[in-house]
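Example 5.3 — Ectoine/hydroxyectoine ABC transporter permease subunit EhuD
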Amino acid sequence: MTAIWDWAYALEILPILAKASILTVQVTLAGFALALVLGLAFAVGRMAGPVWLRSATSAAVEFVRSTPLLIQIFVLYYMMPGMGLSLSAMSTGVLALGLHYGAYCAEVYRSGLENVPRGQWEASIALNLSPWTTFKDIVLPQAIPPVVPALGNYLIALFKETPLLSAIAVLELMQTAKILGSESFQYTEPITLVGAFFLLFSLLSAVLIRRLERRLGARAGARR
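Solution (predicted structure tokens):
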């Protein structure tokens, strides 16, 4: 009877998958950093500025949220070179993840910004503070802490979406596992190890997010 699990093979491929996991983490962090920046820009664009800007930003956010990430990856990877912009597969993957999750983060930011009392803006105007100073030093510090858990959920979700980048030949964890399986015709070990890596990183991310949430909550309480 053939063994279901080959420990020798699992230990052999573990360093290869561990190396691939570094690339997966890099793509995740870069994509999420881009999503945080774009999400805030989208949120501000939907709430402030002229009507055309609010309408255009809202349309872009809804379009991105309403289309599959895999389609967006293909569009960016295969259509951008025709428009004169050629990026590597990894850069395209980071851009796709950042745009996609930036649209979702925009709604999270918007809810946080809308929960800041209007009186904060009025008091800043009375103190003759510039809009930028008011937003950066008064409004944003109050809007961010309550939405950290939601943003953290998107970080974990984004991490679990990185296998989609295998469609454009980014050698992340899942693509590496597929290659190993095709070479040895043993898929149980590499796929199971990939699942273990994703579980480990997701749990670690959840712990770090909770710590950040508590730290921000403590700071907010100290300011009061």
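Remark. Helices lie at 7-47, 51-65, 69-79, 89-114, 118-126, 131-161, 173-184, 188-223.
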